[in-house]
Write a structure and sequence with these properties.
It is globular and about 55 Å long. The longest helix is centred in the last third of the chain and has 24 residues. The protein has an eight-stranded parallel β-barrel with strand order 1-2-3-4-7-8-9-12, surrounded by six helices. The chain has a domain of 234 residues: Alpha-Beta Barrel (TIM Barrel). The protein is α/β, with parallel strands linked by helices and 338 residues long.
Length: 338
């Protein structure tokens, strides 16, 4: 089992500290560092800084959404990062939702065809192959990199929750990235991806099955729990995720969060997230690193091969707090993060 760190979840790390933290993660046994895209710092820029500060830890976009740049552009970025890092790039992509698509003047449509074509172009460009596409979602005139990549194999992972997207991952991706799913849902998704890979003549064991479990640590459990409620309020308002949360058996709780948001804004939505939702979803509020690690153990029995831990800070020292977490996770030590 591989354990990864995710430098996201609403935490802004000043200056070059994110690269310093990646170095600390590497020293403490984390296999990969991930950075996602929203309205925060750019993943490839951050990962490039991390690459210069590290030597072995893998570097993943978790995720880039496909409406933010052309597949040729991401192929160039992937090849560049892979060469600069000595073959450590991991490219996670997803279709996201209409809100994020609209940030880039795009319309959310044809998600399955879009993802399939996008990934194929990224993979070919990053490998240094000549690419030409027409007649589908994406069209490009003949393109080829001006250099031969030293590391032409770039793993591409699909972010997916629904049946069609997760089956697509089994057929075409190097693995699946699962976010905000409880253990039962993770098992279902892993089984679906494995079956789709097998049906396509692929070896299911050659794929990666990756899930995120957010962690917040504070000696005051209520403080940690409230920080996670900010995360859950966001996901209960987001397209696709709110549907999945409802399908997992929390339709009433999710509806209450959305109603509170309509009546009183985001703070009201956070206040409407019940403690039971924090306990049921992949969010762990704990008093110590060792306690959080123990409570994450059941997720390792869902069929995943890689557990990503987005750390959610709860103090006014996000760098120091995250460092303490990184230094404690893989040695299962009791570390006071406050």
């Amino acid at each position: 089992m591989k354990f990864d760190i995710d430098f996201d979840s609403g935490v802004v790390y000043p200056g070059t500290t994110i690269a310093d933290l990646a170095h600390i993660a590497e020293e403490n046994g984390f296999d990969a560092a991930w950075k996602g895209e929203s309205n925060s710092h750019d993943p490839i820029v951050c990962l490039t800084a991390m690459a210069m500060r590290t030597s072995t830890i893998k570097l993943g976009t978790g995720i880039y959404q496909v409406f933010g740049r052309s597949p040729v552009t991401l192929g160039i970025q992937a090849a560049t990062l892979n060469d600069l890092s000595g073959g450590r790039a991991l490219i996670g992509i997803g279709v996201s939702n209409q809100t994020l698509a609209s940030w880039h003047g795009a319309t959310f449509d044809r998600p399955i065809a879009r993802m399939r074509e996008y990934a194929a172009i990224v993979r070919a460009v990053a490998a240094g192959e000549r690419v030409e596409a027409s007649g589908g979602v994406y069209s490009t005139s003949p393109f080829k990199l001006s250099w031969k990549p030293s590391y032409p194999k770039v793993p591409i992972f699909f972010a997916g929750l629904g049946e069609q997207m997760t089956r697509l991952a089994g057929r075409h991706a190097d693995g699946i990235l699962i976010n905000m799913a409880d253990r039962s849902t993770i098992r279902t998704i892993v089984q679906r991806v494995r079956q789709a890979a097998s049906d396509a003549g692929r070896n299911p064991d050659s794929l990666e099955y990756i899930a995120k479990v957010r962690v917040c640590i504070n000696h005051n459990i209520s403080t940690a729990r409230n920080r996670l409620k900010h995360v859950l309020a966001f996901y209960n308002l987001a397209d696709h995720y709110r549907d999945m949360i409802g399908n997992m058996g929390f339709e009433g709780e999710s509806a209450d969060v959305r109603e509170a948001y309509r009546d009183g804004g985001f703070r009201a939505a956070v206040a409407a997230v019940p403690d039971s939702l924090v306990e049921a979803l992949p969010t762990i509020a704990a008093a110590s690193v060792s306690d959080a690690r123990a409570r994450a153990e059941p997720y390792l029995e869902t069929g995943i091969t890689r557990l990503v831990v987005p750390y959610v800070t709860s103090t006014d020292d996000p760098v120091g707090e995250t460092r303490a977490f990184l230094e404690g996770w893989n040695r299962k030590a009791v570390v006071d993060l406050t």
